[in-house]
Amino acid sequence: MTGRVLWFVAGTAAGVYASVKARRAAYRMSMPGLVDQASALGTGVRAFNAEMREGMHAKEYQLRAEVLGAPQLDSAPLDQPRLSLEKDPT
């Protein structure tokens, strides 16, 4: 009796797992799923570009500081405002 219950539970779990996987695969291949994937890809590309831009600005500032002798970002005392690499939105 215990063996039958065990196999019944295992079969039910496998069926639920396969059903969920099939539903997700069907959604990914539908038009709304493809739109969601393209949107997520665009968001990832924008985030990657922002990270690269931030890193480039930081490295450029570091190189300029080495060449021109400008103060480093981390050398400013805490009570003084730090230099910002972001552009003014106005």
TrEMBL record:
Pfam families: DUF6167
InterPro entries documented for this protein: DUF6167 (IPR046165)
Record's protein name: Secreted protein
Protein source organism: Aeromicrobium camelliae
